[in-house]
């Protein structure tokens, strides 16, 4: 059986579809922005958006005055779309083309954001690699926010099987190196009007692993 080519799949999606009509599109990433505001993330914080692709989160962060934003995505085309949309503003952003399961950071971040990338990692080795990557690349007083499909959400996205999470299963994965601040469930309305239930969990890195 031929191995699934994750990068090829996402390049095909972004080359063939209007990203303002795909299910994950959000004109306003309210939940993420609300959490950033609640945590009082400073404008000088080093922020990375995992799987940010053509998301509008980077637009809103720049509008709010954030000075050090990195967007990572497996699809080069998705990042090119975002750069084109932002125009001259794109020069203020660091863009990284990488599969998060294989990403080796060269910087430390103060805030790690991931909406709907983590749940595509469905085997133990990739999940363990993700946990190790965020542990090693997040600053000692850093925060992490991860949004995934909940147990009441879809079981697939873009034709790919995903891993659903609850507050307890999400917390269990990160509990050794992170302290949970809160989790909340939200309904995302897709451009076609369908509701998808997400769980967002916010964590703070522990100074000493448990």
Characterization of the model:
With 210 residues, this protein is of the alpha/beta class. The protein has one domain: Rossmann fold. Helices cover 29% and strands 30% of the residues. The chain is built from six helices and nine strands. The chain has helices at residues 6-16, 30-38, 57-64, 76-86, 124-137, 167-174; strands spanning 46-50, 68-73, 93-97, 109-115, 138-149, 156-157, 160-161, 178-189, 195-205. Strands 3-2-1-4-5-9-8 form a seven-stranded mixed beta sheet, sandwiched between helices. Strands 6-7 form a two-stranded antiparallel sheet. Helix 4 (76-86) links the parallel strand 2 (68-73) and strand 3 (93-97). The N and C termini lie far apart (41 Å).
Structural class: alpha/beta
Q: What Rg is obtained from the alpha carbons, in whole angstroms?
A: 16 Å
Q: Average pLDDT across residues?
A: 93
Helical content class: 25-40%
Task: Indicate how many domains the architecture comprises.
Answer: 1
How would you name the CATH homologous superfamily? Vaccinia Virus protein VP39
The overall strand count is: 9
Question: Termini separation (Å)?
Answer: 41 Å
């Amino acid at each position: 059986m031929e191995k699934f080519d994750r990068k090829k799949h996402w390049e095909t999606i972004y080359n063939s579809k209007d990203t303002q009509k795909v299910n994950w599109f959000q004109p306003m990433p309210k939940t993420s922005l609300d959490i950033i505001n609640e945590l009082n993330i400073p404008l000088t914080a080093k922020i990375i958006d995992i799987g940010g692709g053509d998301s509008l989160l980077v637009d809103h962060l720049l509008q709010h005055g954030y000075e050090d934003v990195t967007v990572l995505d497996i699809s080069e085309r998705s990042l090119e779309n975002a750069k084109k949309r932002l125009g001259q503003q794109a020069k203020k952003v660091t863009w990284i083309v990488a599969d998060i399961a294989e990403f080796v950071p060269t910087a430390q971040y103060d805030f790690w954001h991931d909406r709907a990338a983590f749940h595509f990692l469905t085997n133990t080795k990739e999940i363990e690699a993700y946990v190790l990557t965020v542990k090693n690349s997040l600053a000692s007083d850093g925060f992490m926010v991860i949004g995934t499909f909940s147990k009441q959400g879809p079981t697939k996205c873009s034709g790919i099987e995903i891993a659903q999470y609850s507050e307890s299963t999400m917390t269990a994965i990160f509990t050794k190196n992170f302290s949970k601040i809160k989790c909340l469930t939200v309904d995302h309305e897709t451009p076609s009007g369908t509701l998808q239930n997400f769980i967002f969990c916010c964590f703070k890195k522990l100074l000493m692993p448990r």
